[in-house]
Specification:
alpha/beta; Rossmann fold
Length: about 325
């Protein structure tokens, strides 16, 4: 197929482009031009800010696309810009998140409201813009479902090129040779998915017939607690550092995610497995690859201050 990938040069979009190209699809990658990965240089690109995409409707149409994938709409206005720019009648896939579930709102509030695992028909949030005024997957889903799109709801996405450096709270201590890491109870459950597996889910949704208006969770089959996952990260990094349980009140800021969990975000992807034939690859190998990449690609200005760690460890 000829596929327009909207926002396709950063983390998730980069993996989606690679997967679709490997399957023989022809791509038009539409983005701001701020990132130009060399492996995407052979594709056709259109550089423009998302708000200006409708002004390029003729260029979208000239590509003669069969389908489009919106990776990074961010909010309803972003989805509107995409839909106004695209030709009519395309097969559409939009990336959302499990943060649309009421359970996410409850987890942030420290309360329990929903049984798990979360399925596609689990209650959705009532509050909007929990993560800021420009972030709302509920708005994205409303726009795209009205246009007949397939919606994918990934869990917490990890992998190579993650610009948020989700493993950094552990790996910065590994790089510094820290042997004791202050940690909370680490009981929170939040389903995860490797970025490459999000890409294969997108491809499966595009290539399957009759997916208009369908919604799919995209997560790994098993979900470790936060503490167990941290132990796996340490093992993958070859570190013997000890996770030392400390009072939550003294946890360093970047380790507050290790506090005792409230509402679990354990999510089920049975529907994607049964209807799309989607399967994640070996999570242990995905984690190893991810940890290795992040160990060798630290943030440009890594945090090397461990005073808060020392203070927390003294509490024990």
């Amino acid at each position: 197929m000829r596929v327009v990938v909207l926002g396709g040069t950063w983390f998730v979009g980069r993996a989606i482009c690679a997967e679709l190209a490997a399957r023989g699809h022809e791509l038009l990658v539409v983005h701001r031009g701020r990132a130009e990965p060399p492996e995407l240089s052979s594709f056709r690109h259109l550089h423009a800010e998302r708000a200006a995409w409708p002004e390029h409707r003729a260029e979208f149409a000239e590509f003669r696309p069969d389908a489009a994938v919106d990776v990074s709409a961010l909010d309803g206005a972003g989805a509107d810009s995409s839909l106004r720019a695209l030709p009519d009648g395309l097969r559409l896939v939009a990336i959302s998140s499990v943060d649309v579930y009421r359970a996410y709102e409850s987890a942030r509030a420290g309360i329990h409201t929903d049984p798990v695992p979360l399925r596609e028909d689990s209650p959705l949030r009532t509050a909007r813009h929990l993560d800021g005024p420009q972030w709302e997957n509920l708005d994205i889903e409303e726009r795209y479902l009205a246009a007949g799109a397939t919606i994918l709801r990934p869990g917490g996405i990890y992998g190579e090129h993650d610009y948020q450096h989700r493993f950094e709270c552990i790996l910065r201590r590994v790089r510094a040779g820290r042997q004791r890491i202050p940690f909370g109870a680490g009981t929170m459950l939040f389903s995860l998915v490797y970025v490459g597996d999000v890409a294969t889910a997108v491809a499966a949704a595009l290539e399957a017939e009759g997916q208009e208006g369908e919604i799919y969770n995209v997560v790994e089959a098993t979900t470790p607690s936060m503490k167990l996952y941290a132990q796996w990260i340490l093992a993958a990094a070859g570190s013997r550092a000890e996770l030392v349980t400390v009072p939550e009140s003294v946890l360093p800021a970047d380790l507050r995610i290790t506090r005792a969990g409230a509402q679990a975000m354990l999510t089920d992807a049975t529907k994607a497995r049964q209807r799309l034939g989607w399967r994640e690859r070996d999570p242990a190998e995905s984690l190893r690859r991810s940890v290795e990449w992040h160990l060798h690609h630290p943030p440009e200005a890594p945090d090397e201050d461990f005073a808060a760690d020392d203070l927390a460890l003294k509490s024990t």
